[in-house]
Each structure stands twice: as structure tokens, then as C-alpha cells.
Amino acid sequence: MITAMHLLIYSDDAAATRTFLRDVLLLESVSVSAYDAETDEASVDDWLVFAGGPCEIAVHPTHAENEGTTYESPQHHSISLMCDDLADTMAELAGRGAVFTGEAQDLGWGLAVTVQVPGAEDMLLYQPRHATAYAKGLRA
Q1: Is 108 left (phi over 0), alpha (psi -120 to 50) or beta?
Q2: Is the whole model's pTM more than 0.90, yes or no?
Q3: How far apart are alpha carbons 55 and 57 in whole angstroms?
């Protein structure tokens, strides 16, 4: 059975992205050695794998129409960070060096802002107004 989900962030500066996850978001991690297929051994560079905490998966259509407006999106994956209080979370993260793109916006389904991730794509940080599923977990 499925025991967890493993999310990947592809980064142009993996060290900076890992530092952001560790020092700004304060995510706990374990160190794992990268495997080198050419030498058939672990590399000397340890990789950090971060605990992501509870998560939920939403499926959005690539094509939708709503009240006369058509929405189109390519197939892709997205990582968003959820919080209970957006203003407090932004202040706390900014104190640890986080940079936000623009101001927080009310999107109806939640209050949201984009946080810059060094070396990688930005992530959405939001305070949901919708029902959440992350406390439900996996079924055995």
C-alpha cells in the first residue's frame, strides 16, 4: 500500500533550495547519500530529504468553462504551501529571509501570495477558505 508521497523540486541551485527549505521554512530532514550508477557506490555529497508534513492532492482540469470564461492549462504538477494565518506566516518567513512576489490576494477560495524559492520555481503560499483534506491521511 501507499505509505507516503515523495515530492520533487528540480532546482538550478539545489544547495540554495535546500537551505531555503531548511532555514526559512524550517522543514526537518534526513540525509541520504546519492547513488552513483557509474561507480556503483554512494557519492560523498549527502542529499537532504525533507519532511513535508500533511498533504492533500487536488485535481484541476486542463480545460474548463465557468460563467462564460474559458480556462486552459497544460498538464503539470504544482506545489503549494498551506497555513492557518497568511499575514502571520508571511511576517515569520520574511524574518527568516523569504521574499514574496507581490502582495497577498483574496482569491475567493483563500488568501494567497507567491513566495520565491531560490534556484527553483516560486510556490504559492495560502490560507485556505475551502474544506481541507490533509488531516485525513492514507487508508491502510
Answers
A1: left
A2: no
A3: 7
